Amino acid sequence: MSKADPTIIQEGGGQVGTADGGGSSVQRGPEQKQGLALDPRQPERYARRVLVASLGLAPQVLTETLHALGTDETAPFHATEIHIVTTEQGAQRARLTLIDPETGAIARLACEHALPAPGAVQIHVIESDGVALDDIDTESHNAAAADLIVDLLQRLTDDPTAALHVSIAGGRKTMGFLMGYALSLYGRAQDRLSHVLVSKPFEGHPQFFFPPKPAQVLLDRDNTPVSTASAIITLAEIPFVRLREQLPKPMGAGKASFSRTVALAQDRLDPPELVLDTGHKLLIAQGQEVRLADSEFTFALWVVERMQRLSEDDGGVATFERDPREWLDIYTRVVGPENTREDLLDTYRKGLEEDFYARQKSRFNRQISDQLWPLDERYKLRQKGKRIWFDLPLDALHVVCTREDGND
Q1: Is residue 405 domain-resident?
Q2: I want to staple 169 with a disulfide (CB 3.0 to 4.6 A). Which of 9, 196, 286, 339 is the partner?
Q3: Are 343 and 303 part of one and the same domain?
Q4: Per-residue model confidence as pLDDT tens digits over 80-118
Q5: Taking a C-beta distance cutoff of 8 angstroms, is the pair 190, 40 a contact?
Q6: By C-alpha distance, which of 308, 273, 305 is closest to 289?
Q7: Structural domain contains residue 368
């Protein structure tokens, strides 16, 4: 038996520990010991090496994956911790066949192949309305699995000292798809995705968990004796698109559901569109409405009209401009001659000071942050030198005037 038998540190959807705490026994990589920079091309050298796997009723795919990772001749990846996503039935099988300190396949694999045992194994049982699921066979069950998976991967990838290896070999096909999709949303350069392939007749064989030492003789489905010495395990790494930088930072307090996370990512991938409705004094960004004070709306409209009149590169307003007439004309058009504030007009007739631009830009951006998250960064006013503008293409900028009846 290995000196460091794996132990269950937690079950369910609790907090996931970091490299310096949370219950995991972390085997630090060489870079962490020497204080060197991490290289995402070498995930096997990270402090936390985390295997995340979806499991169903064939738990052996986990040890087959561990075997393939740990015996790789060029870059062996020895998991310091394992996270299993499964149903209640899958959890029971995992406890009995994988994790048991006396008979579990994880400990046997480490012992027979002289591999480091993972410091901890955490089982995450999928629940719906507080009830552990025996299977995932309804739309609500799929939603529960999706939410658990996306929350788990979000938390694990928050640790820059962790490298994840995500296996989609086990469980329902939808579980594997969700694991891969969630890693696409949150995965970083050091994270990997794979599926394990096992040669026949050992694939799915209830007594085959990895090539044992010494080799054993098993009976195949036709009751024919076969030697495990002929078993071949192949780890097929799956390339995936990393969309992490498209997600808003931070995602916000609490857990984000799978559907919400996908919607946020899609919003960031959709083309920008900024509409200024002068009839309702309303800013609309990708369909989301933002209500502004008259002066802030006027300033945004001034910037957009300048950009449309000049060019994407030269447009916008310059903070050295002191002539207030153009701004006052737009302000009067926005609020209506009958609603103009004479005190405000008197103030600005004297000329626009430099702090006027800083004040308007700050107030506008504050409202965008408050009302438009997570798209706020895309629609904030930018400043470079003396020029203030929207960092948006001209074809994304629109000025309309709708009346109360909704017609132009």
Answers
A1: no
A2: 196
A3: yes
A4: 999 999 999 999 999 999 998 778 999 999 999 999 999
A5: yes
A6: 273
A7: yes
